[in-house]
Amino acid sequence: MSSSSLSPLPLPSPRPDVSLSLTLPSPSTLIEALKPEERGIQLIQLLLTCANHASSGNLHRADACLQQISQLASVTGDSMQRLSARFASSLAVRIIKRWPGVYKALNHAGPACADLDRTRAIFTRAFPYMGFAYAIITRTLIQTMCNERIIHIIDLGCGDPKLWVPLLRSFAHSPQGPPHVKITCVHSNKLVLEKLGAKVVKETESLDMPFQFNPVNVRLGELTLDMLKVRSGEALALASVFNLHVLLSEDDRVDTHFGLNKNNGVKDCKQMGEFLAMVQSMLPKIMLVVEPESDHNLNRLMDRFVEGLHYYSAVFDSIDATFGGSSCEERFALEEMFGNEIENIVACEGLEREERHERYARWLVRFARAGFRPVRLWYETMEDARRLVEAYGSDGYKIISQKTSLMICWHDRPIYAGPRMVTD
């Protein structure tokens, strides 16, 4: 739904044509009498109906659905109520964006970078997902670079010392002595780069190993080859943790009119194609990518809305299990972070929609087009990942192993996947 093709607003009247329910109050006593299963089914039905009305432009009926949802959903309720509150809010934002002036006047914005960084730290500490990804990356890089003396690692937007400091320690204790290591970090937040740089430089000084840090303060879509300072003779590796999908953002109107191009249902994307061609031209030994295992890069709102409900229900259930059903500041911050992702998936279109997660099989197609091939996992990598996840408790979490990927699931529902790629 484009906000650029709008009819003039009608003259003020005592009874406005459209009323929007943007707040989601706590459920009433009558609603609380419903069994959670019954309430959950009603919420799903109402959300899907509301999404259908919002997609077709039937604002009166969409608003009526939002009013009903507001009586059932709650940001302090059970997992399904909290999830529904986020999806309902995202639908409300999609509707109100039909009036750009009203939308901008509300000064709607996501969390500040500092708050987002703090929330990601909570996420890393409270759940096995990031540790799972870091364990795979660390073990794979150690195996890949074990005989190299000049190593260059490009961090595509993670910027977390918890990933790179343990790896540097492993390199420092190599039987052949510490290699020369250079880390290039690409990040749009200068503060993240400064913190990472200070941490890794201090660590390598204490380890007495040769080291360089190259901060690149740009968004991933603005990155150019010369910024990376790749030199001849370097053993090159790249790693992206939950960032590569932003390069899939594009104007979707052509696909809307003419349908997907024929290549296993995978849309061509100029920005992604150019980026992967640049990476391939550097001839890296390996590229590691960790991404959400869901398909939110679909043109039709209803398609990605259904995908989003399925995927984020697993995420919110794992949050609920971690916090034992209680409400606290940390839990709210996490749900707000994922709520912003949901809003981008539901309320945004075109270049503004960056949360374009795709499944592992589609990433394989994209990388194959660019001249990459998948790498078989080392046995030790899988064992490291399993031990780490088991440390968080065996209930709920599960590792699915494939030849070229590990996926971490919550009750058999895949949440994150980590494909590994290497040039031919």
How would you portray this structure in words?
The protein has 424 residues and is α/β, with parallel strands linked by helices. The protein is 49% helix and 14% strand. It contains 15 helices and 9 strands. It has helices at 29-32, 36-56, 59-72, 79-96, 100-105, 113-126, 128-144, 161-172, 190-207, 253-258, 270-281, 301-323, 329-347, 360-369, 379-390, and strands spanning 150-156, 180-186, 211-216, 235-241, 286-292, 372-374, 397-401, 405-410, 413-423. Strands 1, 2, 3, 4, 5, 6, 7, 8 and 9 form a 9-stranded mixed sheet that branches. The longest helix has 23 residues, at 301-323. The protein is globular and about 70 Å long. The model is unreliable at 1-27 (pLDDT under 50). A motif (LXXLL motif) lies at residues 244-248. Residues 41-101 are annotated as: Leucine repeat I (LRI). Keywords: Transcription, Transcription regulation.
